[in-house]
Amino acid sequence: MNDRAALDLLVSQGPLTRTQIGELTGLSKPTASQLLARLTAAGLVRTTGNVTGRPGPSAQLYEIDPAAAHVAALAVDQLGITAAVADITGQVLGQARVDTDAVPDDTTDLTARLVAKAVDGALAEAGLERGQLHRAVIGTPGALDPQTGLLRYAPHLPGWQSRALREELAEVLGVPLVIENDVNLAAVAEQHDGAAQDFDDFVLVWVDEGVGAAIVLDGRLLRGATGGAGEIGYMPLPGAPLARGGERSAARPDAGGGFQRLVGSPSIVALAHECGAPEVRTVAEALALDDVRAEVARRLATGLAAVVAVVDPRLVVLSGEVPQAGGQALRALVEEEFTGLALPRPEIRISDIEGNPILTGALRTALAEARDAVFDTA
């Protein structure tokens, strides 16, 4: 327990002296010295210079040895895979992107080849090899059913439907592997690094080409019996046809029905055309139009109201292409739509994660898994 407490402090606060570690953990100087000697011998901690500018002998600083473990984080989308490799401190050392058409699709192991190519590209940039990896986390649309092992709600990802998907990919990479819903990982990123810090109860709503939600209650993700909690893109709403199984495809991600048909990126551009702006080609251009922005806010608020009525979160974080394009103007209109409703009124924020929030959440999850394994000195 003392070892883990010291290691967690070094992760969160950076280099510390023996005295600082003793003060923060409540350990005596001799015990702190023994602890640091043990962790250094185990290859988990190393010295990193001395504290200067103080009277008396300079104190030696200790830090987590970055080479103690390495992790891979992957974000899967319809067009390919982005991979990042980081050391145990969270420092990203390499990143690579592989498009789906970069690997011939005439083989049965297309998915494994794509994953391997993305990870190998990131490892090469980092100057590492597969044997130096300790954990990997993949964020993908849909949800892995814990009972069957099938990736549900993702018919637009051909090649990801094997019942032994996790085991097959773990064997290819040679490390323990987690496959997690991409929106759940975006919520992990928000909880640790973004708009949901200090919130134990919140909902992240992802509005992009696809639509989904992640529900966090008491600080924990709610996944549901089949892993499908938060698949609000399929939620029936007035004004949208019912979503039927298998209707969504790679060629028509906006096909089918439900909430996604009302607020997904392709529908926003189509709405601008209906409002008399046939020249609009992007979501940002569409949401610059007052009429379109007001209608999108109404549609978003209608879907959010259904979620809020059931979950009653303190906070709703809006993420994805549509909220980012609409910005604070869209957020304010969504919030205004809740005025007068006989429902709880959560705070509504726009995501402020820089870069890819799915990749950030996958990295956070992979680091937590690796640290639990590597920092176990018992």
TrEMBL record:
Under InterPro entries, the record lists: ArsR-like_HTH, ATPase_NBD, HTH_MarR-typ, ROK, WH-like_DNA-bd_sf, WH_DNA-bd_sf
Q: Which Pfam families match?
A: MarR_2, ROK
Q: Which organism is it from?
A: Streptomyces yunnanensis
Q: Which CDD domains match?
A: ASKHA_ATPase_ROK, HTH_ARSR
HTH marR-type domain ranges (all copies): 6-50
The name on file for this protein is: ROK family transcriptional regulator
- Please report which protein family the annotation says this sequence is part of: Belongs to the ROK (NagC/XylR) family.
